[in-house]
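Tutorial sheet, problem 5. The two components below are modelled jointly, 228 residues in total.
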Amino acid sequence: DTEVTQTPKHLVMGMTNKKSLKCEQHMGHRAMYWYKQKAKKPPELMFVYSYEKLSINESVPSRFSPECPNSSLLNLHLHALQPEDSALYLCASSRSSGTSGYEQYFGPGTRLTVT
Amino acid sequence: GENVEQHPSTLSVQEGDSAVIKCTYSDSASNYFPWYKQELGKRPQLIIDIRSNVGEKKDQRIAVTLNKTAKHFSLHITETQPEDSAVYFCAASIREYGNKLVFGAGTILRVKS
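Model answer (structure tokens):
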């Protein structure tokens, strides 16, 4: 399996809802990432997990809560979001997050709309 | 922190012509430079990458060049085809920040047939 999968494809939620995004890979990668992408903009890094431990948090508001239950799964828990959080949320994975640079492969994303 | 600038923001070429997109980076410690292609409504797709110990890399119609002294790298697409139309993002990886990718703003490439 050479793909990163994400569910759901689309999500509409109110500002008081709690929802979760899910990402899965079966490539044996040990680093996983969450990115946020607004329309016509590049992806912006939110979180990096390396060997199931959070290694980078790009000062993301606490209403976004990542979780890495095992080396194949990555979740993003959402709570009390704002309309400006509406975006495409992309998951990516790579062999590791070491310093020599490894290819990152993206999932198809979850299109999130906050109403 | 690292800053990546990408030019041009839009590029229109005739089918069969070449296209060149240029990026500059600020952090001399960056050592990995991937290029992603993103079609409308789809995921970013890695099309080619280069590491700082290499000056040029080719893959069929696509090539990337890196000038570490000038801190810039370029994507070259030859014999463009309509299916090359997409948004292209360059990125640079910060060595001490463990594979964190900083992206350029993107280039919309339109190939006219």
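Marking note: The CA atoms of residues 99 and 111 of chain B lie 32 Å apart. Full credit if you identified this.
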